[in-house]
Amino acid sequence: LTDEEQDPTLTPHTRTFTPHWRQHVTFEDVFLYFSREEWELLEEAQRLQYRDVMLEDFALVSSLGLAVSRSHGATQPEPEGSPGCLRR
Length: 88
Known about the structure:
Layout (H helix, E strand, L loop, with lengths): L2 H4 L20 H4 L5 H6 L2 H20 L25
């Protein structure tokens, strides 16, 4: 549906548009969490792929000059073998 179909009171002059690249995105929006049980079900290749994707996402968010807080667990080291552990 177009904006006009969703809200017929909108006109081209009253409609606002925010490009997707200007919308607020946090690391939390792209971070994927696994429970311990889910993590243990993953094969080693899946764990490595997860690590690679999370490191890439972290690097991309960091390259934008945005701080990634420790409350998201992204920069807090986790014990080896724990869910979400990023091994090198």
